[in-house]
Write a structure and sequence with these properties.
This protein is an alpha+beta fold. The protein is built from one helix and two strands.
Length: 64
């Protein structure tokens, strides 16, 4: 579980994130570079979108 207190869009925000480990049912999907894609027609955040909440990337790397 991760808690994230942040400021965005001119106001404070608070979220609690529950992260669960899982495995894909079809092991062949691990060989693909892209499994699914969400296209945002409103614009792009840049070449790499940030991963939220803070600390999630480190936690995923540790439990890889």
């Amino acid at each position: 579980m991760l808690e994230n207190i942040f400021h965005a869009f001119g106001r404070a925000g608070h979220e609690i994130v529950f992260v669960f480990g899982c495995r894909l049912a079809d092991p062949a999907l691990y060989e693909r570079d892209v499994v699914g894609e969400i296209v945002d027609d409103a614009g792009s955040l840049g070449p790499v979108a940030p991963l939220y909440p803070a600390g999630l990337a480190d936690r995923l790397a540790r439990h890889g």
